[in-house]
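Table S2 (continued). Query chain:
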Amino acid sequence: MIAILQFLGTNCERDMQYAYQTLLKQEVAIIWHKEKSLPSNTKLVVIPGGFSYGDYLRSGAIARFAPIMQDVIRYANQGGLVLGICNGFQILTESKLLPGVLKRNINLSFISKQQNLIIANTDNKFLSAYNKNQKITLPIAHADGNYFADSKTLESLEENHQILLTYEDNPNGSLKNIAGICNKEKNVFGLMPHPERAIEKLIGGDQGLIMLKSLCD
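Corresponding output:
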């Protein structure tokens, strides 16, 4: 079961459902934020993009307290796979499942475009289908994608191969060009680009589907 969370303001859950259910033939459930538990047969939790609670207060800060997140935290701490995309990445940092924070883009503008990326590490379930240093292109669409952490955290991320994805040309000011990171145990991955928007060649490419498929093989 692929469990896709839905908050007030989430807008990418149907795209993710289409990718996993229609293209990858997986059993999928959309989980409302007020639910208190994940399905017992969950093998992957996806926190999709959008603007949970309108991004009021701080992106992801309110969603972090939704009832379902307590079980997501439990699931992650027990080794379950969790993928957070864009607003999902922000929710993961607010929930302390990933280190650091996502700040306002350095130019203070919303960015929406195709973005060149570099696969930084492949010794993980999320990007194992790619080659290290491979260049891929995925869409980005965010106002708060500027990754920040203190120097000790950044050093730890590099030492433990937790920086999984970087920008080829940094669009938002993220330190170390970070576009996506994982936790030390490598079962929680947050990234700003949208793989679910790059799943069919008809609409510009399927490089994102490769990432999503690797999590259900």
